[in-house]
Sequence to fold (232 residues):
Amino acid sequence: EDQVTQSPEALRLQEGESSSLNCSYTVSGLRGLFWYRQDPGKGPEFLFTLYSAGEEKEKERLKATLTKKESFLHITAPKPEDSATYLCAVQARKGGNTGTASKLTFGTGTRLQVTL
Amino acid sequence: SAVISQKPSRDICQRGTSLTIQCQVDSQVTMMFWYRQQPGQSLTLIATANQGSEATYESGFVIDKFPISRPNLTFSTLTVSNMSPEDSSIYLCSVQRGSGRSYEQYFGPGTRLTVT
Fold:
């Protein structure tokens, strides 16, 4: 069974204080690892898909990296508007063209608060 | 990207009643996904809806409780039947875009359901 564990559960940073969020996973053949941002009362906002170990992607102050066991979301010089819950999800590589092949398994997220 | 809308955005329902949630996507997609996010928990896939065929349900979810329709390639509905307070959740519609080694999965804004 695919599993995703995110840490820490909550993180409080001062503006400009860089840090990293962790996503550890076990999956029977990784097809993709997804990062999302979710604001209260809203649906998840897509950030990145990573496909293989060693891959990195960047968007503004966010940089996602991937190894065979975990992914990190690095936040450089965060601002208060970066405050949100960050979700990680994995998609397994499975045969056929069924819905199961595209299922995302989510972690419980990291609640990030950035203060002035 | 994908523009996904859901109706209603929120509702308060009495136990024993049913609610149908609509999901509209801005362009055609093969598969649409329905997720549930219970209070304080992460997202869990309910089912996958393919146009022209019956939905595929994940373990723990059944068609009698969560019937799904997929009349065309841009629209789907999820019905939550015979509701109980345990069904209070956010229900999210999702689509995947892309293929091969470049794809992304997008979510709608969600429907917040409270069952009293």
